[in-house]
Amino acid sequence: MAQLQCIVVTPEKTLRDTPAEFVALTLFDGEIGIAPGHAPMIGRLGAGEMRITHANETVCYYIEGGFVEVLNNVVSVLTSRAIPAEALDESVAMEQLETARSRAANTPELMAQRDQAINQSRSLLRVARRASR
User: Fold this and answer.
1) I need a surface site. Which of 44, 73, 108, 120 has the fewest CB within 10 A?
2) Is the backbone of residue 42 left (phi > 0), alpha (psi -120 to 50) or beta?
3) Per-10-residue mean pLDDT for the chain, 133 residues long?
């Protein structure tokens, strides 16, 4: 059976370079699942969960922005932030959400920044809660 190769790169390092049977990613406008033989594509990542399945094990990460490229069964994930889900703390994520909600927003630019921070914090909290189950 064909396999994927999943490469996750942040500005600091190559975080993961591993075979996979399936990769699920959060795009800026929804979620995508990638299996072997997927059509070539480039997508813009959003904030949310990335799941890499290999040998009946699933590894989860919180990712924040960037791009994904799928070509010849290689999934290249270039993201500004990737944190293993088990390293997330639900209480810290909740605190970040409260901080984002209390940000000043008296101009359109500040409102957009506040809304982005709220959305990222909600995504972080969702991944942290799912990992703690």
Assistant:
1) 108
2) beta
3) 89 95 94 96 95 94 96 96 92 91 90 91 91 81
